[in-house]
Predict the 3D structure of the following.
Amino acid sequence: VSDSAFFVGARVSDVREALQRIRPVGGNSHRKYSLFVGQHLLQDSELLPECSPEGISALVVETASTSVMVRSIPFDWTPNQVCRWVDAAGLQNTYDLVFVPIDLAKMDGLYKSNLGYFFINFVTEKHAKRSFRVLDQPVAGGRANYTEVSHASWQGRAAYEERCRQKIDSGEAHQLLSLRLGACPFSSDGTRLPLEVWLWG
């Protein structure tokens, strides 16, 4: 089912059973669900009724997967080193964000310790698919002999923009510092951008 509404029954159990049967086509796409009671679209704050005589249906929307997670990188790689490694794999100018979570408890002025993984958002799904092939390679100093590439839970630039804004709005010092140290946003031509410019233009 893609980009279409389908009837799933009158009870919550019917909804859960139907949604559990749905899997992304080919394992390389994501789906978002919107639930309806009759013609009413349920908002996030609304509870799904246990039973409805109007019927409960769901709209399933296929979305492009442009964001990947790369595990088992060396812990001492900085975000700049990660970007150089990605570029050396032939992916330069194909992404608009690299985010490397930093372990603030293990870093000092000269040594930045990452958590052994990073996220990267590509401009197109085609480039994201290619990254599975070219970024899955041996790396000395990582937790494993090879890196491991997978689809990220957060998908698309908008999702990462929202996540960055949440960290900024929190006002928490460690959130702001980890964001400043780990986020590398880029323009469409591969130019490194200040975080504020990338977020708000």
